Amino acid sequence: MLSLVLAVLAAVTLDVALGEPRRWHPLVGFGALVQRIERALNPASSGDRAQGVLAWCLAVLPLTLLAGLLAQIPYLGWCVQVLALYLAIGLRSLAEHAEPIADALEAGDLPRAREQVGRIVSRDTRDLDEEGVARAASESMLENGSDAVFAALFWFVVAGAPGVVLYRLSNTLDAMWGYRTPRFLKFGWAAARLDDLLNYLPARLVALTYALCGQTALALRCWREQAPTWDSPNAGPVMAAGAGALGLALGGAAVYHGELHQRPPLGEGAAPAAADIRRALQLVQSGVAVWLVLLCVVAAFYA
After folding, report:
1. How far is CA 215 from CA 139, 222, 230, 241, 267, in A?
2. Where along the chain do its domains lie?
3. What is the pTM of this model?
């Protein structure tokens, strides 16, 4: 247990100090591999679910097995564990994306703010006003904090290097294939459903964490009442609890791929502004600190 906690602390420290690798990030190579697999098994852009399952297995399972084998090597295995978690989390990356958006809004540079937020959200950002930019960025901090930080920590604690590799690769496949378009509706079904499964428990732990680190009663009420109305079974609890914890009114209309989507409301309170992007980031950071303290307490108990 102590070895695992030290590995978590080392990986988080590396991420905070160094951020994501600027060159030669393994996920970039994985993305290239995934594109080849998709071209081979979905050549007509109309692959069925069986082909999608096979593609998922070919992309994820060999690398997960390799991570598990390398983690068993004496002495070197601990370094592999640290490296796997470091490459899977993106706590500093969240800050590196949030700060330029908030800075641009505070400087009154709306075009730059739209450009910056467009790098982290899938909705159309060209016509967003200041409130829309702040809403998109705040929602992204809450949701990506769950996917890119907390869920990776959860699966590392549960299953070490193979657990976090399995999760991160699955989450990446969902981001690439999990779209309800003619090309991926059937082929990407397995990637989307498996990512939902892997995020189910972490998302609810994150929602509870957000609630405990903010306006607890409001966050819990928003989670209970608003999460069931959201399309995603995991984003709903995370974003409803996060918006309630911050006392913000999020959700609402958004344009995706040229189509207006009327999303259910999230949270309750004031409309978001530039400062709230930083508050959302700080909520994620506070939650990570809580998780690390709890891990240390559990390790001390076992010791």
Report:
1. 17, 11, 21, 9, 11
2. 2-302
3. 0.94
